[in-house]
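Much of what follows relies on a compact textual record of a protein's fold. An example makes this concrete, so a full record is given next.
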Amino acid sequence: MRATVGDQLVQHGRVVGQHDKVGEIVEVLGQEGNPPYRVRFEDGHTGICSPGPDTEIRHREIQH
């Protein structure tokens, strides 16, 4: 899993009715885009994440 600053990290809900948790990657702490990542979530909380199998990275689209 590789990411860059500005990409979205989406942690999918693990149980029925649990919503996805979406955040923006504000810092890549691993080498070459690898985890861990510092993520700012929609509620303003910032934390360090090492994504698991229930997580996806949505790459930001580069506008020309």
Summary: The chain has a mean pLDDT of 91. Residues 8-58 form one domain.
